[in-house]
Amino acid sequence: MNTNPLNAYRQTKVKTAGQGRLIVMLYDEALKQLDIAVEEMNKSRSKLDKIHNSIVKTQEIITELMASLDFEKGGDIAQNLYNLYMFFNQKLLQANMDKTPETLLEISAMMKELRSAWASIENQATAGGSAPVGVNIAG
Description:
- The chain is about 80% helix and about 0% strand.
- By secondary structure, the chain is mainly α.
- The chain has a single domain (about 20-130), classed as Four Helix Bundle (Hemerythrin (Met), subunit A) (Up-down Bundle).
- Helix 2 packs antiparallel against helix 3 and helix 4 runs antiparallel to helix 5 (about 100-130).
- The protein is globular, with a radius of gyration of 16 Å.
C-alpha cells in the first residue's frame, strides 16, 4: 500500500492518462532531466554523478518513446521519429562523456518542439472526445 499521497496521485495520473498524454508526460520528464543536467554543468563545482544520472534518465525516456512507436500505423513518421530518437541518444551519450551543456541545449530545443506537437495532438483529442487515429504512431 502506498502511504505517500503525492506518489499515489502521480501513479493515478499515469494510470488514467491517455496515450497522447503519456507521451507528453514522457517529454516533460525528459526536458526536466535535461534542465537538471545543464544546470548542474553550469555550476562551478558540478556533481558529475548528478549530471550522469539525469542524462541516463533522459536516455531511458527516449528509449521508452522509441519502444512505443507503431511502424505499421505510423509509416514514415514513425521511422523518422525513430531516427531522431536514435540521434538524441547518440548525442546524449557524447554529451555525458564530454560534460558540455551545448549538446543538451540543442536536444532540449528539438524535444520542446516535439513535445509541443504532441501536446497539440493530445489537446485536439481531448477536445474532440476521442483519441485521433494514429496517436500511437510515435512516442
